[in-house]
């Protein structure tokens, strides 16, 4: 029933918490992780790959990303989460952008290097120079935790250039 109801985008934000409550809690979970992957994951995947996803549903998926990471196949997780994070980074809603930045670190170690470098790093660097100080702070904190993943050239050409822009921004205040 829930899998049918989530197809209605207006109900998605109400269904997602129910999905996660089915698998959360040691010993009190209704579904095993494998059952969740077999029964619920296809519906979540369908929602995320559709034309649009409501902002509240996107927020809930990113908020509970750790559960999905534990359950899913990393190749599949990567194909789902990179577009979700991209949407969140570019949405213009500070609360969602900050949450996405906070949840991204856990995904970096599990993603392919080229995906991290070409799709996520440029967006994180853009948020390092965002006008919103809270977004900028979270982006810089994330960058300080993940910079070691990248090669020397990327750090010199992209990361240091962005940090120089941040320094100049701070000097203007």
H/E series, N to C? HHHHHHHHHHH
Number of helices: 11
Tell me how many strands there are. Answer: 0
Distance between the termini: 55 Å
Radius of gyration: 17 Å
**Structural class, judged by helices and strands?**
mainly alpha
Helicity, as a percent range: over 70%
- Give unreliable regions as ranges: none
**Please, what is the average pLDDT?**
87
Beta-strand residue percentage: under 5%
Morphology call: elongated
Question: Could you describe the largest sheet, including whether it forms a barrel?
Answer: none
Features:
173 residues, mainly alpha, elongated
Layout of SSEs?
Layout: H1 2-5, H2 9-23, H3 33-39, H4 41-49, H5 55-63, H6 65-71, H7 74-90, H8 94-108, H9 113-128, H10 133-146, H11 152-171
Quick synopsis:
By secondary structure, this protein is mainly alpha-helical.
Provide a descriptive summary of the structure in words.
The chain has about 170 residues and is mainly α. It has eleven helices and no strands. The chain has helices spanning about 1-5, 10-25, 35-40, 40-50, 55-65, 65-70, 75-90, 95-110, 115-130, 135-145, 150-170. α2 (about 10-25) runs parallel beside α5 and α5 packs parallel to α8. The mean pLDDT is about 85.
């Amino acid at each position: 029933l829930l899998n049918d109801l989530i197809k209605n985008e207006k109900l998605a934000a109400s269904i997602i918490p129910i999905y996660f409550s089915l698998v959360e809690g040691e010993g009190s979970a209704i579904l095993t992780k494998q059952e969740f992957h077999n029964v619920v994951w296809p519906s979540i995947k369908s929602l995320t790959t559709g034309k649009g996803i409501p902002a509240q549903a996107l927020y809930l998926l990113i908020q509970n990303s750790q559960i999905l990471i534990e359950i899913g196949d990393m190749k599949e997780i990567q194909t789902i989460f990179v577009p979700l994070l991209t949407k969140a980074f570019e949405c213009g809603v500070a609360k969602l952008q900050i949450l996405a930045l906070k949840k991204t670190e856990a995904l970096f170690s599990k993603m392919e290097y080229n995906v991290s470098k070409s799709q996520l790093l440029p967006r994180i660097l853009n948020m390092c120079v965002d006008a919103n100080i809270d977004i900028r702070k979270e982006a810089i904190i994330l960058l300080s935790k993940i910079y070691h993943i990248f090669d020397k050239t990327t750090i010199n050409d992209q990361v240091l250039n962005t940090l120089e822009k941040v320094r100049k921004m701070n000097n203007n205040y």
